[in-house]
């Protein structure tokens, strides 16, 4: 069929990056706006005779980066392409479609030709109809894609550099002010002291300097009903997607107060660069070493003097927890938690070490008990429980082995069926590739090629559904052998509990009122059920 007689279903793809949006808001450049791109694409279609009577579908991404294809608009367009719902894609230029030259090249060179889709980039004077066997390998197209990719990296570095320069000039770059401050009216980058909360920040530093612990301060603030940082954010309606668990947002804890006491910004300095993106276009960030932060003093009003901050840091340093060498000797290191608030209990070092839940001290209205439980008492209960579990595992081991032998045969049969079906999918994919080669060489028509692809795709979808069903059956049949469970077997007559044994067998220990504890073991659910059955 000639291009003039072919009925087109055209996808117009429009993308506006955040950088383009900033330009438009400042009135500097309208050439890349959504409206301008739409007008250009539609005028182009209207001027081409072969597009007369074509159906037009528009896909748009507003304020999205081109460095990856994780965009709603482009994802919908590519899905429509794979379903055969469009046969032509038109963009302003290649950079609108994407800036990753390798992935863009894959689409131009292989995917779109295979799907029979015409691709046009107006400003790049590129039309895939002029290169029916793929064209991403042409020097001009590949070079432009490399340039776009490099430009994205350069732009990202420029943005980072610009932010660093703003931070060095004292601009506050976070979208929201932190506790004790508020934004200067009419300014996005200036801070002023919020006296309604700064008074509490000063109080914390003064009392910490006088020797009060963060736990004592948290308890007093809760009793007085002083709003926490998260509560202030809610009152000002500036919460975004922060975790809002009740225990770390509605009440003061020693941890929250500790963060405030360690925040150097209260001396009036600007801090920038604590986190950075893993790579261009990635949504993941990683922490930056403190020595690499940008810290500029005297950039906004100070809530506390620098001398006070330094003195408090020295006091906090002397109150730090025991060194790692001491912690390594703790029998239940990081395993003891309160059964009510699910927070870690504090181990108090004495002649007979014990654990307490600090939540009660922070918030007396909580359901957590104001009780202590001695480490020796926990060890005695755990030791008896380990011996009991070991005895039960001896009873269930033979039974579990028989069960595993039976399921192994069933899962092997299921896997063979899955492998056979996967081979069928591979053959159907080969048939599609052969049909494409036949169409290119003129042995079959494009209509015959599309019909062949539709039949193969339908068969592949049906086969994939069968594979999914078999995979689910296989997962249900599988019983995973638990090495953690086997670790119980030598301890039928265990007399002394060690740190190594506790780490191997125990995941968590929850403590409740009246010296009651709940032990969460490391072994798998299948073994738990078998042990329960044997214990009945």
Radius of gyration: 33 Å
Strand pairing plus helix content: what structural class? alpha/beta
Strand tally, please?
17
Give the % helix. Answer: 40-55%
Your description of this structure?
- By secondary structure, the protein is α/β, with parallel strands linked by helices.
- The chain folds into three domains: 9-161, 3-Layer(aba) Sandwich (Rossmann fold), CATH 3.40.50.1390; 181-318, Putative Large Serine Recombinase, Chain B, Domain 2 (Hect, E3 ligase catalytic domain fold, Alpha-Beta Complex); 377-535.
- 50% of the residues lie in helices and 12% in strands.
- It has 19 helices and 17 strands.
- The strands form six sheets. The chain has a five-stranded mixed sheet with strand order 2-1-3-4-5, sandwiched between helices.
- Residues 22-31, 135-155, 241-248, 278-282, 321-325 and 525-536 have low confidence and may be disordered.
Record the SSE blueprint:
Layout: E1 9-16, H1 18-25, H2 34-47, E2 55-62, H3 72-82, E3 88-91, H4 94-97, H5 101-115, E4 118-121, E5 126-127, H6 139-168, E6 181-183, E7 191-193, H7 195-209, H8 214-224, H9 229-235, H10 246-249, H11 254-261, E8 270-272, E9 275-277, E10 285-287, E11 294-296, H12 306-318, H13 324-327, E12 336-338, E13 346-348, E14 354-356, H14 359-362, E15 372-374, H15 375-441, H16 446-477, H17 483-486, H18 499-505, E16 506-511, E17 517-521, H19 525-535
Parallel strand pairs: 1-2, 1-3, 3-4, 12-16
Antiparallel strand pairs: 4-5, 6-7, 8-11, 9-10, 13-14, 14-15, 16-17
Concise summary:
This protein is of the alpha/beta class and 536 residues long. 50% of the residues lie in helices and 12% in strands.
């Amino acid at each position: 069929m000639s291009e003039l007689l072919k009925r087109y279903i055209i996808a117009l793809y429009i993308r506006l990056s955040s950088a383009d949006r900033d330009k438009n808001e400042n009135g500097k450049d309208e050439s890349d706006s959504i409206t301008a791109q739409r007008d250009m694409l539609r005028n182009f279609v209207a001027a081409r005779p072969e597009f007369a009577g074509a159906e037009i579908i528009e896909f748009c991404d507003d304020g999205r980066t081109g460095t990856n294809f994780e965009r709603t608009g482009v994802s919908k367009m590519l899905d429509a392409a794979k379903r055969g719902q469009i046969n032509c894609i038109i963009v302003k230029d290649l950079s609108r479609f994407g800036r990753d030259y390798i992935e863009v090249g894959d689409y131009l060179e292989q995917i779109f030709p295979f799907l029979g889709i015409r691709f046009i980039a107006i400003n790049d004077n590129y039309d895939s109809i002029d290169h029916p066997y793929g064209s991403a390998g042409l020097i001009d197209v590949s070079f432009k894609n490399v340039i776009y990719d490099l430009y994205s990296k350069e732009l990202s570095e420029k943005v980072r550099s610009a932010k660093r320069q703003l931070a060095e000039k004292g601009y506050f770059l976070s979208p929201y002010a932190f506790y004790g401050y508020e934004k200067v009216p009419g300014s996005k980058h200036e801070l002023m002291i919020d006296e309604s909360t700064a008074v509490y920040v000063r109080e914390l530093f003064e009392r910490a300097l006088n020797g009060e612990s963060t736990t004592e301060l948290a308890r007093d603030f809760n009793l007085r009903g002083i709003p926490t940082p998260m509560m202030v954010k809610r009152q000002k309606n500036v919460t975004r997607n922060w975790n809002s668990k009740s225990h770390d947002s509605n009440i003061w804890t020693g941890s929250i107060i500790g963060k405030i006491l360690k925040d150097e910004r209260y001396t009036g300095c600007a801090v920038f660069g604590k986190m950075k993106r893993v790579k261009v276009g990635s949504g993941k960030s990683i922490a930056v070493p403190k020595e690499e932060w940008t810290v500029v003093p005297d950039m906004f009003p100070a809530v506390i003097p620098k001398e006070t901050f330094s003195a408090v840091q020295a006091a906090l340093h002397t109150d730090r927890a025991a060194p790692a060498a001491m912690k390594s000797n703790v029998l239940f290191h990081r395993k003891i938690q309160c059964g009510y608030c699910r927070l870690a209990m504090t181990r108090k070092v004495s002649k007979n070490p014990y654990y307490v839940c600090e939540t009660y001290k922070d918030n007396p209205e909580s359901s957590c008990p104001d009780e202590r439980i001695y480490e020796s008492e926990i060890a005695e209960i755990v030791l008896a429980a380990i011996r009991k579990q070991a005895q039960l595992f001896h009873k269930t081991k033979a039974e579990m082995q028989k069960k595993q032998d039976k399921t192994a045969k069933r899962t092997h049969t299921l896997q063979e069926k899955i492998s056979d079906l996967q081979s069928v999918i591979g053959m159907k994919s080969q048939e599609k590739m052969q049909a494409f080669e036949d169409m290119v060489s003129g042995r079959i028509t494009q209509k015959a090629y599309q019909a062949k692809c539709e039949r193969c795709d339908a068969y592949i979808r049906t086969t994939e559904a069968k594979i999914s069903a078999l995979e689910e059956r296989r997962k249900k049949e599988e019983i995973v052998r638990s090495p953690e469970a086997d670790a119980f077997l030598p301890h039928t007559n265990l007399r002394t509990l060690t740190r190594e044994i506790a780490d191997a067998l125990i995941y968590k220990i929850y403590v409740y009122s009246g010296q009651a504890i709940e032990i969460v073991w490391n072994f798998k659910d299948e073994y738990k059920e078998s042990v329960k059955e044997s214990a009945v």
